[in-house]
Design the sequence.
């Protein structure tokens, strides 16, 4: 669906990672959020490709990437594992160093990636998140209401898998719709592709495992990193939507300053899906940051 992009599927340590590539110049890796895939960057990526080699990847378990069966310990869908996929992908494409942009779940993978592989990333942009450790450490009624799916998806015993599998289209639409800013919408064909991926029971199982890992092994990893004094050393750009919970519930720059040494950023007049709601503003901010 992205004209001008070359699609490739690469095996990274036994997991197939689907990606789309275009442009020349310094590499940028863009990671999507939930419940989406690489198409969320469709308005932003072609413009960035004028000056950069842009790589759009589907996270493991999402889109058309591989969907290994979840494990009981949560390691298969730990952010550490998902980050390792993306470092391996970029190395196979010939890039040992790359700019990194993540939205939602992709930003959480990106956060772990720069902690585990700091030499790989000279600059990081995170869109509409604060760190997982901070979210779980500041649970309020407003947070639990806005992010109810964090708790629903991490429920065990196959409950969310069974319920989502009964009507994946309803689930995807009902989750995305309220998170969009006033008056915003997605193209029907794009929404259909997000739903297409969630008609695969393996995607549902993988995405639930992703959220379970966030509440389990990821949180343990994040606590250990924070306690050890590990911080993001590269410059960080944080963008968030004024109509999204991150903008309403947190002071994002203050929060990120506890996790990184060099943070800047701003709010945009959007809901949660910044690259789809205000692509021109996102392009401008990313262009100024990455050069």
Sequence:
């Amino acid at each position: 669906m992205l004209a001008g992009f070359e699609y490739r599927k690469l095996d990274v340590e036994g997991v197939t990672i689907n990606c789309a590539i275009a442009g020349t110049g310094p590499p940028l890796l863009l990671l999507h959020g939930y419940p989406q895939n690489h198409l969320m960057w469709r308005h932003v990526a072609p413009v960035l490709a004028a000056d950069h080699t842009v790589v759009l990847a589907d996270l493991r378990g999402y889109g058309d990437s591989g969907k290994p069966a979840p494990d009981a310990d949560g390691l298969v869908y730990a952010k550490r594992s998902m980050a390792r996929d993306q470092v391996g992908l970029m190395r196979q494409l010939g890039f040992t160093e790359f700019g990194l942009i993540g939205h939602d779940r992709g930003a959480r993978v990106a956060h772990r990636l720069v902690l585990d592989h700091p030499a790989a990333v000279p600059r990081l942009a995170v869109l509409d998140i604060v760190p997982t450790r901070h979210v779980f450490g500041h649970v309020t009624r407003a947070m639990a209401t806005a992010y109810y799916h964090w708790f629903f998806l991490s429920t065990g015993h196959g409950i969310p898998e069974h319920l989502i599998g009964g009507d994946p289209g309803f689930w995807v639409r009902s989750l995305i719709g309220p998170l969009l800013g006033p008056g915003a919408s997605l193209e029907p064909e794009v929404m259909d592709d997000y739903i297409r991926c969630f008609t695969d029971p393996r995607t549902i199982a993988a995405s639930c495992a992703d959220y379970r890992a966030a509440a389990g092994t990821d949180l343990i990893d994040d606590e250990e990193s924070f306690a050890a004094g590990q911080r993001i050393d590269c410059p960080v750009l944080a963008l968030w939507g004024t109509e999204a919970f991150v903008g309403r519930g947190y002071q994002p720059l203050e929060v990120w300053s506890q996790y990184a040494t060099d943070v800047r950023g701003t709010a945009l007049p959007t809901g949660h899906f910044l690259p789809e709601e205000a692509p021109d503003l996102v392009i401008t901010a990313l262009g100024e940051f990455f050069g």
Notes: Residues 6-290 form a domain with the Rossmann fold fold (CATH 3.40.50.1820). The chain is about 45% helix and 15% strand. The chain has one domain: 6-290.
